[in-house]
Design goal:
seven-stranded mixed beta sheet, 37% strand, extended, 12 helices, 583 residues, eight-stranded mixed beta sheet, Immunoglobulin-like, single chain, alpha/beta, Rossmann fold
Length: 583
């Protein structure tokens, strides 16, 4: 059926068109009445048709075409026939379509190409769902998703964004199994960590400390009744050499050991502590000597991290505190060393609260798989989702940081950590401090931030989505030396998006020409990470689904009125007005 209600897509404002056209029409009609010629009535009709044709060309009218379309139930791999039977019983008019890899179903037809779905009206999707690039083809996601059971294997995986040499890192995720299992992380040097998992969907965390930089292939080995191995690509970045400034009220074993530890890692370290009211002692490692009159902007802009204790901060002048605040917002990282839970001097920066019920010791599990009992300040973060935990004990954050402008502020609540180093447990000591210092320090400045927005894993010949945040420049991006066109977001400036196609299995590289920004990524074989890929696909369908409207839907389309109709009317009317006086 046709609905003749018109809508308009005018070339100019409708008000302007009528404001000009109606006075002109009135003027022409007035002139026709004053002419002593034949066919006055027909001339007025022709003039009216002429104006209607002009209105049609300028207003560009459209009308709605409503037609019945068949509602579809779409079957994908892994669907449960019993659930499909139940849906069909309630909705017998549904048309059944399935993918070629889905189990055959009575009266179902096979989808030949994903592009066929662009014009279909899907009411139900059953099974493992539609890939993300197919969901983008659907003009209206008015379907209900009926998922299949989660597959066995790793269904969720979280890897660190940046992994550095000699930094303890963790790989976390969820493993789903119908029986008890064991998961191992194997690196170039052998087994790095392992964990025993119970039946069902179980969270896991595996730790490792890489000793060399480069691109490596680790393995996640799942041992149940059978053994399965998944290749895990890991890029290890070289150690960052930071410029670190210590400001201390009086010397302590904690700062002394931390300063020596950082010096041995080839960081540039400057230490200042006070011996009397106006006298200071300076120590330098891996850097030339400089004199420090105060914490002013020029000094703070030259360092990557400031480590300051509670008392020293309290005695800073208002000018120094103001410069420190500005420097943090411009990218400086600061780690505060706390020792007094009742001192509120840092409340202008830190959202902390003393908790008398908190224990003053904590059991801490570190990289050597040993548990330590160390003193901890009875302080807790106030509820704040912006705080990123670095070291935790169950639900209690023992060290962490948060953004303030472009910089970060970090806090270590654990006390007497030097005892680990003095006992020779250097790796455990490093695992307490290196992640906190590395994640809090000033970030490397770059004109571009390059990121893959498509989740791991990537398979050959599948699309990958790329985003770039720039500093006012248009990125010249290439993938394996092939230029990728980028499009800037219309609402968010300097945010660019683009896409490419994954090549063959192995390492690949994205490269931005302007400042040599690079991003290495890995393309897995299609036989790997199937459970993770399916789980992510099912999650995408759950987030995209919408409740179907009816069994039979009416699809509304806007059909433009052909401009040739108005051209014909215009020519016919003009010809009559020209011939009428000559007859």
């Amino acid at each position: 059926m046709n609905n003749l209600v018109l809508s308009f897509h005018a070339v100019f404002s409708i008000a302007i068109i009528f404001a000009i056209a109606l006075p002109l029409f009135s003027f022409f009609v007035y002139r026709e009445f004053h002419r002593r010629q034949k066919f006055l009535l027909f001339r007025i009709v022709a003039l009216s048709l002429l104006m209607i044709s002009l209105f049609g060309l300028l207003l560009r009218p459209t009308y709605q075409d409503a037609k019945k379309t068949e509602a579809i139930i779409f079957l994908t791999k892994g669907y449960q026939p019993s659930k499909v039977d139940s849906i069909i019983q309630k909705n017998p008019e549904l048309k059944i379509i399935r993918t070629i890899d889905a189990t055959p179903y009575s009266n179902s037809s096979i989808l030949k190409s994903w592009y066929e779905l662009a014009d279909e009206d899907i009411s139900f999707v059953v099974g493992q769902g539609l890939p993300s690039h197919v969901l983008e083809l659907l003009p209206h996601k008015t379907f209900q998703f009926i998922p299949s059971p989660l597959p066995n294997g790793i269904i969720k995986l979280i890897t660190p964004n940046n992994i550095h040499v000699n930094n303890r890192s963790q790989i976390q995720g969820t493993f789903n199994s119908s029986e008890k299992s064991k998961l191992k992380l194997i690196g170039p040097g052998g087994v790095e960590d392992s964990v025993s998992l119970s039946q069902g969907a179980t969270f896991f965390s595996l730790a490792f400390t890489p000793k060399q930089s480069g691109k490596f292939i680790y393995s996640l080995v799942a041992e149940t009744r059978s053994t399965s191995t998944q290749r895990l690509p890991i890029e290890v970045l070289p150690e960052r050499h930071l410029r670190i400034l210590f400001i201390q009220k009086f010397p302590t074993a904690e700062v002394r050991f931390l300063k020596n530890f950082l010096s041995e890692k080839n960081h540039e370290v400057i230490l200042r502590y006070q011996t009397s009211k106006n006298n200071f002692v300076y120590e330098y490692s891996n850097t030339p000597q400089v004199h420090i009159d105060g914490l002013r902007s020029n000094l703070l802009s030259s360092v990557d991290l400031l480590i300051v204790d509670q008392k020293s901060y309290a005695e800073l002048s208002s000018f120094e505190k103001n410069d420190l605040n500005k420097s943090i917002r411009n990218g400086l990282g600061v780690v505060f060393l706390l020792y007094d839970a009742k001192d509120k001097a840092l409340n202008e920066f830190l959202r902390l609260k003393a908790n008398v019920d908190s224990k003053d010791t904590a059991h801490i599990h570190l990289s050597s798989s040993r548990d330590y009992i160390l003193p901890v300040l009875p302080i807790e973060w106030q509820n704040d989702a912006s705080v990123v935990a670095v070291t935790k004990n169950k639900n209690r954050i023992l060290s962490g940081n948060f953004f303030l402008g472009q910089g970060k502020i970090g806090v270590q609540f654990i006390q007497e950590t030097y005892r680990l180093g003095m006992a020779g447990n250097t790796d455990d000591y490093s695992s307490l401090w290196t992640p906190l210092i590395g994640s809090t320090s000033r970030e490397h400045e770059s004109n571009f931030k390059l990121k893959l927005t498509s989740p791991f894993p990537h398979y050959p010949d599948e699309p990958i989505d790329i985003s770039v945040v720039s500093s006012g420049l248009e990125p010249s991006l290439s993938a394996d030396s092939i230029r990728i066109p980028m499009k800037e977001n219309a609402l968010v400036g300097d945010y660019w998006t683009g896409g490419s196609w994954a090549g063959k299995s192995g390492w690949h590289q994205l490269h931005i020409k302007q400042d040599s920004t690079q991003l290495n990524y890995f393309v897995s074989d299609t036989s790997e990470w199937k459970a993770l890929k399916i789980s992510d696909q099912m999650m995408g369908n759950e987030l995209s689904q919408n409740v179907p409207v009816n069994k039979i839907k009416r699809q509304q389309k806007q059909i433009p009125v052909s401009p040739f109709l108005f051209y014909f009317i215009f020519l016919f009317s003009s010809a009559f007005l020209w011939l009428a006086p000559k007859v």
